[in-house]
Amino acid sequence: GQQVKQSSPSLTVQEGGISILNCDYENDMFDYFAWYKKYPDNSPTLLISVRSNVDKREDGRLTVFLNKSGKHFSLHITASQPEDTAVYLCAAAENQGGSAKLIFGEGTKLTVSS
Amino acid sequence: EAAVTQSPRSKVAVTGGKVTLSCHQTNNHDYMYWYRQDTGHGLRLIHYSYVADSTEKGDIPDGYKASRPSQENFSLILELASLSQTAVYFCASSDAGANTGQLYFGEGSKLTVL
Question: Could you identify which of A10, A31, A38, B82 might form a hypothetical disulfide with A109, taking C-beta atoms 3.0 to 4.6 angstroms apart as the criterion?
C-alpha cells in the first residue's frame, strides 16, 4: 500500500492567502520528512525538511508541522503568490543508518490565483 | 551546484525492445536513485545504489535492471519494454542516505513505449 499519502490531488488558493498541504504516513519508523516542489517539465527540488525530534520548522513563508502521534505532516505557505503554483510532493524516510529509500506521496497540485 | 544529467531526455521505444536510460552526476555523491513518475502516483523508487558495482531494489523493481559501473554513472535498463513502462523517469543523487539530506534530481527522461 501507499506508505505516504496526499489525499488532495489539487488545491486552489487566492493570492495572499495561506496554502495548507497535507500528508499522511503509515510507517512508525519514518524519522525524516520533506516537501519537494515540482514545476511542469522540471525536476523536483527540496523545499524544506524536518526530523522527528521537532514538531515544527519555519523557513521564511514556509512552515512544516509534524504530528507524529497522528502520523501526519503538513506544509503551510503564507502570503501565497502565483509563482507558488506547482506540484508539491511530500516524502519520508526511515531511520536505518544510511537508509536510502525516500518514499514520496502522490503530489498535490497547488494553484494560486491572482 | 549539484549536477545530475540524464540521457536521453526523450525516447520512443517499441514493445519488447531494450531501453537504457543513463544518468551521470558530478556531485561526488555516493547515493544514486531511479524513480518513475506517473499521474496519480507521484514518484516511485525503482532501484538505488550507495556504492559502485552494487545496486538495490526499490519499491517497484519488476521489469527493470540497474547498473552502477562507477560512482558517477547509474543506468536503468528495460530488457523487454512494455506499454506499462511509459512514464517519466528521474535520476537523483545524494551525498548520504535519503534520511539525511537532499536529493538532487536530473531533468527527467520521458519514455513512450508503443
Answer: A10
